[in-house]
Design goal:
- With about 375 residues, the protein is an alpha/beta fold.
- It is about 40% helix and about 25% strand.
- The strands form three sheets. Strands 4-5-6-7-8-9-10-11 form an eight-stranded parallel β-barrel, surrounded by eight helices. The chain has a four-stranded antiparallel β-sheet with strand order 3-2-1-16, sandwiched between helices.
- Strand 2 and strand 3 form a beta hairpin.
- It is globular, with a radius of gyration of 20 Å.
């Protein structure tokens, strides 16, 4: 019997909300232009309703578990799991005095993804079918090339993606700006002339640095300049967008936590491509709102990181041009989840026989990395 056959016109109350956090060491030191890290923390929210359990997740701090368990779960208990907009509005009201950005937005994002997963499972549908798909495969770009990598590892990682069929790869820049053009040159030699080369400064450059380096990067056919200055500097992003070499797209938006953030960025004409991250922008619902704004402003959309979480909504987002296949997250998701979509010739391929997001937590494998468990 399909799970969805049990649904009628009655509400489906939420019976349980649980959160847990897992800290996984990276496979090598990782750094970008403004930050360095040696581990990544995954916060998982599991939500039960109508006899089924769904999950959502975010990449945050373990303290998000307490926020979900002590605050958000109380707002959800007994409420209808099917009415996701109502649940989201109530949660935002509950968070008003605590803050709906940052950590709050990440916790809300994980809950929203879990709600969509539960709803799709109750209906017996993969989430892409529930949302309405426009594609069956999600175009990817390989992402890593950390500034902490020696040149040999940088070259091997980017070239490896191209050998697997990726047509776009991205590297980090900005830790040592004086060396970046040499690293970009090495990357281009490693991947050959056909693949698109993206660079991401994570806001590390000043405006003059960014413009000067954009000219040097263009010599190696760099097509994508991500966060050349802080994403808070909308004027600076627009300034650079108007001046970088032709064919180089300025991108930003990964830190957006709700539609107002994205609207301001688009109103300022700050980006050629808007990035959105469902682990930060209020989940699947927030990603869909970002997509609507991209439609209104006639701007392409790119999904940021967390490839397994984004796979289904990326299939439903007509404006989406690609999704980031971030090395750290792709590795972690394969370690901790069953049902991760497979990669085939540079695209993410969904298993549409699995309902919801199609993911199941590998509890035995995850247990060794647990740092916080909700009751």
């Amino acid at each position: 019997m399909r799970e969805g056959s049990r649904l009628g016109s009655e509400a489906v109350p939420i019976t349980e909300v649980r959160a847990s956090a897992y800290e996984i060491p990276t496979d090598a030191p990782e750094a970008d232009g403004t930050f360095a890290w040696s581990s990544t923390t995954l916060v998982v929210v599991e939500l039960s309703a109508g006899g089924v359990r769904g999950l959502g997740y975010t990449y945050s701090a373990a303290c998000a578990v307490d926020l979900v368990q002590r605050v958000l779960s109380r707002e959800l208990q007994g409420q209808d799991a099917l009415d996701i907009p109502a649940r989201g509005a109530a949660l935002l009201r509950r968070m008003r005095n605590l803050g709906t950005g940052g950590l709050g937005a990440m916790a809300l994002s994980a809950v929203d993804a879990a709600l969509w997963d539960v709803k799709a499972r109750l209906l017996g549908l993969p989430l892409a079918r529930l949302l309405g798909a426009v594609r069956e495969r999600v175009p990817l770009y390989g992402s890593g090339g950390f500034t902490s990598y020696p040149l040999a590892r940088l070259e091997a990682q980017l070239a490896g993606w191209v050998e697997q069929g990726f047509t776009r790869v991205k590297m980090k820049v900005g830790t040592h700006p004086e060396d970046d053009w040499m690293r970009v040159r090495a990357a281009r030699r490693a991947i050959g002339p056909e693949a698109s080369l993206f660079v991401d400064a994570n806001g590390a450059y000043t405006r003059p640095q960014a413009l000067a380096l954009a000219e040097r990067f263009a010599e190696h056919d760099v097509r994508w300049l991500e966060e050349p200055v802080s994403s808070d500097d909308l004027e600076g992003l627009r300034h650079l967008r108007d001046r970088v070499p032709a064919g180089m797209a300025v991108a930003a938006g990964e830190y957006g936590d709700r539609d107002l953030y994205f609207r301001r960025m688009l109103e300022a004409g700050a980006v050629d491509v808007l990035q959105a991250d469902a682990t930060r922008c209020l989940g699947i619902s927030g990603f869909l709102q970002a997509h609507v704004l991209c439609d209104a402003y006639d701007v392409p959309l790119s999904g940021h990181c967390a490839p397994a979480l984004h796979a289904h909504v990326a299939c439903a987002a007509r404006r989406l041009v690609h999704l980031e296949y971030f090395h750290d997250h792709a590795r972690l998701e394969a370690m901790l989840f069953d049902g991760v979509p497979r990669v085939e010739q540079g695209s993410l391929v969904l298993d549409l026989s699995r309902p919801g997001l199609g993911l199941e937590l590998k509890r035995a494998d995850a247990r060794r990395y647990a740092v916080a468990m909700g009751s």
